[in-house]
Design a protein that fits this description.
alpha+beta
């Protein structure tokens, strides 16, 4: 099966695939950023 996360960066037309550079550039905005959510009521500091 393998890793399926890469599929959002591909465009398919029949049996051929191409890299979707637009999607790669869009996802690059999130490189190095982590978002954590919690239900704890703690101060931001």
């Amino acid at each position: 099966m393998g890793d399926k996360r890469y599929r959002k960066f591909l465009q398919s037309s029949g049996k051929q695939f191409a890299v979707d550079q637009t999607m790669i550039d869009e996802e690059a905005r999130y490189d190095g950023k982590w978002v954590l959510t919690t239900n704890m009521d703690l101060p931001g500091e």
